Amino acid sequence: MNRGAVAEISLTSIAHNLRCIKKVVKNRPVIPVVKADAYGHGAVKVSKTLAEEGVPCVAVAYTGEAIELREAGIDIPIMVLFERKDIKDFFDFGLIPVIHDVDTALSISSEAEKRNTSIKVHVKVDTGMGRAGLSGSKIIKDLLEISEMNGIELVGLLSHFSEADLSERSYAFLQIERFNKIREMLSKKIGRKIFSHMANSAAVLAFEGAHLDAVRPGLMLYGYSPFQKSEGFGELNRDVRSQKLKIECDKSGSIELKPAMKVKTKFLCIRNLPSGSSISYGRTFITNRKSRIGVLPLGYADGYNRLFSNNAEVLVKGKRAPVVGRVCMDLTMTDLTDIKGVTEKDEVVIMGKQGKEIITAYELAYKTNTIPYEILTSLGGKSKKDYV
Ligand SMILES: *Cc1c(COP(=O)(O)O)cnc(C)c1O
């Protein structure tokens, strides 16, 4: 099949990025987040690599994702961040649920009793994300109630920052303050310290006070920093064309993350068109010279956003070729007129390096007013994968 693109995933880069994270957090346990098929990189292969690198646990969003990993032979602990319904699966597949409410805890407890077993759980508290977790004035009461339920071993406490890029730091400080207060009160009541984790990638990079007992990064693992601004530490050199992804960290020196995904394709065909030819739906591009137009076998159905119409570039022979006309469902056109000697056999890079040029997920995100997370999950998610 000629459709779409191939996402070339570098597992070596992912292992490298994990080592960078460990360096920044001074060897605290890292719980890598591999939800959404490891941000489009393929959760099975990525988790295998991470397990070989010795991570204590990986985190997914839903049980279905965890089951896929179990069925692929991954036997390290798997934390399930959001599932509330498929409770039996936690037991059948040996998963670690994150509990968000007392009712779910009750169901898990009665399932454990029925099976005459116990299950380790982590509980999430909402410190300001407003998405999931125990909240309100009864947090401590609820936590205690959960900790005393039969068959439930409360082994961890977590929360999540509402700023993926810490652009509003004062709110992050407020959240960590709330979280610290809760875990101290809980520890006092249950008479032991509770294993606590809160840091996403942004907090790993720029908020040492949030590293606590473990960290939970996602994006960094895949080679990108959530920072897109040019002030403050943890900053990224935010020239969208920059080849450097060197990041200055708070206190721990600098690290260099390596983007792990390259997305490439081949031409469907190259057409020679006269001046005045209109290209694609809506005639939004009309050639003003004799032109060579490359037709690519991918479109928005393959995760190549329609907002790239007349707006993005691809790499051919190490040079940038503009996308011309509207991106279609299955096809995209690119103007090759300024690049000499292109043949239908040449590789076309949608994202990643070719020669001296690079197109990063930041650049594509910037052009479509979104974040690298969405670029990686949509392009990677829809592409065939090739591991190197
Ligand atoms: C996605 C997610 C993370 C990882 O966030 P990044 O910004 O990718 O580092 C951590 N914790 C939870 C609960 C998440 O949902």
The small-molecule ligands in this entry are: pyridoxal-5'-phosphate
**Biggest sheet overview:** 7 strands, mixed
Number of individual domains: 2
**Structural class, please?**
alpha/beta
Report on this structure:
The protein is α/β, with parallel strands linked by helices and 388 residues long. It folds into two domains: 224 residues, Alpha-Beta Barrel (TIM Barrel); 126 residues, Lyase, Ornithine Decarboxylase, Chain A, domain 1. The protein contains eleven helices and 21 strands. Strands 1, 11, 16, 17, 19, 20 and 21 form a seven-stranded mixed sheet that branches. A seven-stranded parallel sheet has the order 2-3-4-5-6-7-8. Helix 1 packs across helix 3, helix 7 packs across helix 8 and helix 10 packs across helix 11. It is elongated.
